[in-house]
TrEMBL record:
InterPro entries: HTH_HxlR, WH-like_DNA-bd_sf, WH_DNA-bd_sf. One of its GO terms (molecular function) is DNA binding. Residues 1-93 form the HTH hxlR-type domain. This is HxlR family transcriptional regulator. PANTHER family: TRANSCRIPTIONAL REGULATOR, MARR FAMILY, TRANSCRIPTIONAL REGULATORY PROTEIN.
Length: 287
């Protein structure tokens, strides 16, 4: 999951795909990306089964790239990133649009709830432990994904990439959410080089995702708000990249005694959101 989604262009292409772009020209018109980068991302997303490749014109051959079921099911991750960036990242060149829930007609924010009991859930309300296929060594990709390029400065995810765009950044965030606090513990648990741990902790702290005090690193309120991104990404990954020997991570909700499955609900009407019932409110916020 990190190897695929830890790339800003991949996320932006999928975001535009779910907003209706299907053809090469559609993506190019919406994203400040070179032809070679776009071609590479479309090929990768097709190979991974997130986009389909269909010929719509012959002589010359031209293709469109509609999202597959696997690709469409990314919407909770993208919506969670959208909401986090909109709420917590003030330095967008253009303010991010708000969401509207078409079923109730209100502007809304997604809320993470428990499928079993319906209660609102945050990172501190669940307990996670390794499943049969899980370990830090198996959960960190073997190589780092590309850093966010300057050409993407107008992108929608400027700070998300500081976490998801680096294998150690995301791992450190998850480790912080489950209670690891000391530099030495981050290093020993993740098996990360000291320089990489120091670099990513400094970036997470500079972005106010972590707070550093008393030689400990704790997630801030902004950091804990990334729980929605982490849990939806985890659920997507475990649905589509199922390990033969069982899940990598098992998440429990002690309050209700069930395994935790996250459902995004509308904060106004409390009904479960669906990708097809979320619309963009383009009017800029007055505040």
């Amino acid at each position: 999951m990190l190897g695929l989604l830890g790339d800003e262009w991949t996320l932006l292409v999928m975001q535009q795909s779910l907003l209706g772009a299907t053809r090469f020209g559609d993506f190019k018109a919406r994203l400040p990306v070179s032809n070679s980068v776009m071609t590479a991302r479309l090929r990768a997303l097709t190979d991974e089964g997130l986009l389909d490749r269909r010929e719509y014109h012959t002589r010359p051959s031209r293709f469109e790239y509609p999202p597959t079921t696997r690709g469409r099911s990314l919407w909770p991750v993208l919506v969670s990133i959208w909401e986090w960036e909109r709420r917590w990242v003030p330095d967008h060149a253009t303010p991010l649009p708000r969401m509207q829930h078409l079923e109730c007609g209100d502007e809304c924010s997604p809320v993470v709830t428990c499928r079993a009991c319906g209660s609102d859930v945050g990172a501190e309300d669940v307990v996670a432990h390794w499943g049969p296929s899980g370990s830090w060594s198996r959960s960190v990709p073997p190589s780092s994904t590309r850093r966010r390029s300057e050409s993407a400065a107008a992108g929608l995810f400027p700070q998300t990439m500081s976490v998801m765009g680096n294998r150690w950044g995301f791992a450190l965030l998850v480790a912080g959410l489950v209670g690891i606090r000391r530099f030495s513990d981050f290093q020993s648990q993740l098996g990360a080089p000291p320089g990489s741990v120091a670099d990513r902790l400094s970036i997470l702290t500079a972005n106010e995702v972590f707070d550093a005090a008393d030689n400990r690193y704790r997630p801030t309120e902004k950091g804990y708000a990334l729980f929605a991104v982490v849990i939806t990404a985890l659920q997507w990954a475990q649905r589509w990249y199922e390990a033969p020997d069982g899940p990598a991570v098992v998440v429990e909700h002690p309050s209700c005694g069930h395994r935790f499955t996250a459902v995004l609900t509308c904060d106004r009407c409390r009904r479960a959101l669906r990708g097809t019932t979320i619309s963009v409110v383009s009017t800029p916020e007055s505040d």
